[in-house]
Amino acid sequence: MLYHCPSGKTHFINASTAFLLEQGLGQPATVESAAQAVAEARGVAADDELRADISDTLLRLEELGLIERA
Length: 70
What we know:
There is one protein chain. The chain is mainly alpha-helical. It has helices spanning 15-24, 31-42, 48-63, and strands at residues 2-4, 9-11. It has a two-stranded antiparallel sheet. Helix 1 (15-24) crosses helix 2 and helix 2 (31-42) crosses helix 3. The radius of gyration is 12 Å and the shape is globular.
């Protein structure tokens, strides 16, 4: 769970999303670099499917106001 103070909402997030928020997005990142960080943590290749999942996740996090586009 993630509590967003500005909105007063609690969001339920999965492990990959938590990783992105905690580790992968500690500084501005591209979809490619975020996908690479998740792939390395999982021990898998950063393929097109993973990049698409990361892109969708980042867009959703932006929609929720949890991240901002640099």
